[in-house]
């Protein structure tokens, strides 16, 4: 890569990291969800190598199920309860212009289960069929989640052939109502090389829930909607650097 192009790229990634806050940890919830969606839209307009991939719209076409759970209550269904945030329809418009003109937003994904031992109980909720991301470096994951103040930790687990699991922390669900959760994805160098050199895509493995000691025993339920990924589809690599390193180091 020649110096001017590399310099422009560095400046772009530096400025965009302020917009998307790709710091390697779940971003503290921002009440200005509309603003976050608008900044995402601007990033997509400014850099054509980036695409917004709707991995799961939870409209009922892809079955999901519990895995690693001993609870007597493990129920899933698709329901008409939708995010009530004003940012949700705005994000839908961004998805329409990102390759999903026929996107439907008529249902969400409900899970219901039971906490017997708050200190030890945990669950994986997995897609029954493979859920592959497009080839490229995923740099951000976004999902809508409804909770009722549960002391549960939520992680998104992604995987890749010839590699270990990659855990993306979405945070503790001790809030009430719908929230748009985001987490930056800082792939290890070996995973980036598996994509760039061997065309091995990343896939979604599960949502992983674990109960905190402060959680009360009993039944609880959650809703999920619109799991999206921001993906860098460029294929260039310059000596001595990985594109993901730049995202992770800038604040």
Automatic annotation (TrEMBL):
One of its GO terms (biological process) is bacterial-type flagellum-dependent cell motility. It is found in: Periplasmic flagellum. Keywords: Bacterial flagellum, Cell projection, Cilium, Flagellum, Periplasm. Signal peptide: none annotated. It comes from the Bacteria. Its main location: periplasm. GO terms for cellular component: outer membrane-bounded periplasmic space; periplasmic flagellum. This is Flagellar assembly protein FlaA. It comes from Leptospira idonii.
